[in-house]
Amino acid sequence: MIKDSSIIKDSVKLAILEHHGRLDGTGYPQTIKTKSMHVFSKIIAVADVFHAMTSERLYRKKQSPFKVMEMILHDDFGKFDLAVVKTLLSELANFSIGSKVKLNNGSIAEIVFIDPSSQTRPLVKVVDNEQIINLGINRELYIEEIL
Q1: pTM (two decimals)
Q2: Which listed residue, of 21, 76, 112, 124, carries a Cα 20 to 30 Å from 13's Cα?
Q3: Residue 27's pLDDT is what?
């Protein structure tokens, strides 16, 4: 649809074509090797997956940005450019301090600290009892929703 458009830069056209590709060679419409994937494609690939997973869908509920970033970092390790993932994770951490969240056990808490070495699992303070929980240590709990 856009390949013959003169108002869209070639780098943007390439990013649109490649953004479903993955660094490990998987993805579509063609397999792309790490070195040939355009930087814009790498950025859009992470943004596209992040947006899709944090958005409400007919077939599933939206997931919390923290859970999604953890899945991208661990479950999809090697599929995305790590520098791009870390940049998004850093920005998520920058605006999250003080945010109210719902934990998977139903507790409402506030994010009080994000350790740079464990950005997807911050320290939270439970609203009801002011208990501080380190989600990096307490692995059975996670942020289900940002309120």
Answers
A1: 0.84
A2: 76
A3: 81
